[in-house]
Amino acid sequence: MRATIVRLASAVMAFVVATAPALAHTGEGTGGFLAGLMHPVFGPDHVVAMVAVGLWGVFLGAPAIWMLPVVFPLVMAFGGVLGILGVPIPGVETGIASSAVVLGLMVALAARPPLWAAAVLVGAFAIFHGYAHGKELPDGANAIAYSVGFVIATGLLHLCGIAFGLLTRWPFGKLAVRAAGGAIAATGVAYLGGLV
Amino acid sequence: MTGALVGGLAGVLLPTHFLVIVALGLMIGQGGRLPLVHVALFAVGFLAGCFVIATAIRETPAPILLLGCAALCGVVVLAAWRPPIMLTTVMTFAVGILVALNTPPQALTIRAAMIEQVGSAIAALLALALIILIATKAAQPWQRIGVRIVGSWIAASAILVLALRLAR
Predict the structure, then answer these.
(1) Has this prediction a pTM greater than 0.90?
(2) Which has the closest alpha carbon to A110: A46, A69, A57?
(3) Which of A57, A80, A81, A192 has the fewest CB atoms nearer than 10 Å to its CB?
(4) ipTM, 2 dp
(5) Angle at A13 between CA A39 and CA A75, to 5 degrees
(6) Nearest to B16 among A86, A144, A155 (CB)
(7) How far apart are CA A9 and CA A76, in angstroms?
(8) How far, in Å, CA of A3 to CA of A167, rounded?
(9) Could you say which of A33, A70, A78 has the minimum Cβ distance to residue B152?
């Protein structure tokens, strides 16, 4: 069982690391399930933040481990609605990059704030991510398939984080997960600094 | 046979139908009350929708309403709220009507159109029954969490597209 978990976590990490380095928000508006599924995956700023949510959920333990991934898509949808309606929110890309910094640091420091505080923090960042997605949601017949695709992709990225976070059961795993949190925060800093 | 298959595919594989049927099935299964009655209600609703189509009324807002139903059911599922039986029965009947309204047959003859509608009805009913069964059997804590996560995904997707349709 343990070997399976380790193999699964390794595969998930390899998948995450192998994703192409490209920004998610190119302004393209193609439809379809696969397009929606690939949209968050091809944006490292999104990928690291989503994975961080899963990792942090593991550190926080139950019920956060499942509550954050359950609540995140809904709050993200609220942000998406704001984006669709064109409600101006300043500094969206900065907010997305900041989400990677803050959530990465939370994981790296193994921070365990109260559940409500974690939920508010993750929810606030979810609005930025949702806003960016909502602005690029394609109209037409494929809008539903596209939305389902990117919501599932977001959820699967959370699950990747949770799967990798399960390594915290072992001492070396805790170190690895916290190091991953540091790497996520560094990625966010790189985006904030315009280095990527 | 081909007509029934085409109707069946439209009944379940249209993204809106897929979303709403899964969300409705999860909501009914999670509530765990009178699953067969709900399946029967869905069938009656579908039949009522077919009669409405036969009267050849103008275009209906079925797609928007279906998305609204999917969002509502998804939120109920993610909250793990056991809704009142009145809500689930009314919702099931309404979704039955709306799914029928949203799949007007494309066939040229009445016979072929009826076969398509029968195909849609059978596929939608089977899908609904299957989802209800899965949700009813999901007794383990991790299975219930899985159901809630799927509800969350459906609600998020439906809300986004609903906003898009209403805004543009």
Answers:
(1) no
(2) A57
(3) A192
(4) 0.75
(5) 45
(6) A144
(7) 26
(8) 11
(9) A70
